[in-house]
Amino acid sequence: MVEVSICSESTQDGEEQRADRNGHAVEDVAPDPLILETKEDPEAQKLKSGAWKWSVAYLCFYGFVVQLKPGEPFITPYLLSTEKNFTRAQVTNEINPVLSYSYMAVLVPVFLLTDYLRYKPLLILQSLSHVSVWLLLLLGTSLLEMQLMEFFYGITMAARVAYSSYIFSLVPATVYQRVASYSRSSVLMGVFTSSVLGQLCVSVGGVSYMTLSTVSLGFVSFGLLSSFCLPWPKRSLFFNKKHIEAERKDAATMKLCEKNDDVSWRTSVFVGMLRELKNVVKVPNLRLWSLWWVFNSAGYYLVLFYVHILWNKVHPATENKHVYNGAVEAASTLLGAMTSFAAGYVKIRWNLWSELVIGLITAAQAGLLLLMGTTDNIWVCYVAYALFRGFYQFLVPIAIFQIASSLTKELCALVFGVNTFLGTILKTIITIIVADKRGLALNVHSQFLIYFFYFSLLTVVYLSCSAWVIMRHYRSERGAVGRTEVALAAELSPIATATGEEHNGTSVKA
Prior knowledge:
The protein is mostly helical and 510 residues long. 71% of the residues lie in helices and 1% in strands. A two-stranded antiparallel sheet has the order 1-2.
């Protein structure tokens, strides 16, 4: 792994304690007396004063607010309704694919600019894109305008990385795990509240899709105003570190770092991290969960992008109040939160059973996709979708832990970014082949059958790998037991005595 000098250990992230790769505090090495004589670290002062709590509280409030888009579960029914009057083929093969292309195109620039600009500008950009999405959805009438709407939607998805990593730049490392749960919970609660609110407006209040979109525009506009009030982080993960550390170090600590001044940060750390990426594929556990992230997330998001079109095909409701997209999204979000929470309490030997667990869950997802693609009962389709999301969300925190526990914080962020980008590329390739009008332009039922075969293939691969790993493990255990028995027998055998003679009196020494 990348070596970190004493100057970075004494000042990185402003810790008076270092954190392990899961965010838990661990005991630090004995500090240098020269450093102890200096003034207290600003981050230690922040931890004692609790000033970071207000920043976290506001960021969680912001994360909740920006998810309040009650019209989001009903975008596809809105496009297919008489208010917009687009055909199902247009939505499936010409409008929706733009989302995948946009997401892939802006993901890497957003990932790099997020850290370089220190998060806040990207969250403002995300809020501006949210406003653009709902303005185009309300005022746009042409196919090109709806494609532009999907383009801005892709920007909002890519910018989510800014929110997920922003909170770590505001707090000391000793509270990373706690604040991560706060931020994720606020987002899930926002999605849940938004979906329930949208369903109540449609089913109980009889609100039209256009009015619901207007309400969503009001919420995202408030989110845009809220983004300007977000605090500016004092540090970032990759860039600006040299400048920020120089501001926080006193002369005593700077002396310890003079020998490293002639090496640029990008050369000594960032480039080193890029070189270290090749080591990820050499570690079986990291390789397995990274591949799961790439292949399964690609299939998962394809299902999410097209499931609303499937619902409309299975049950083309003539009245808006009989469209239950919001309720299903709320239920699936709640189920996903519950399975994510439950995953934290699963204690098994992951180095032995990971492939089997992934294979069984992927097989269940494949069965649910086959059910969704063949049933003509909308309620069966709804339940299958909720379970499909729940299975995926169960594995997400496990994958995060398995990857993060073996990497440094900086390299972990880079690995997640690369995995997400590779998954997005794969998703885009499948979209071009299966859904785009320039490809096969399959209808939505045929697409779901393709997704079923895709997950079935992954299942075969995972279960085959699982059989190989388990067989090799028990074979090695039997070999170890055999070697132990041989050694024990040799030790207890009267053939070799303590005097070094065999039973016939001849010497056993060379």
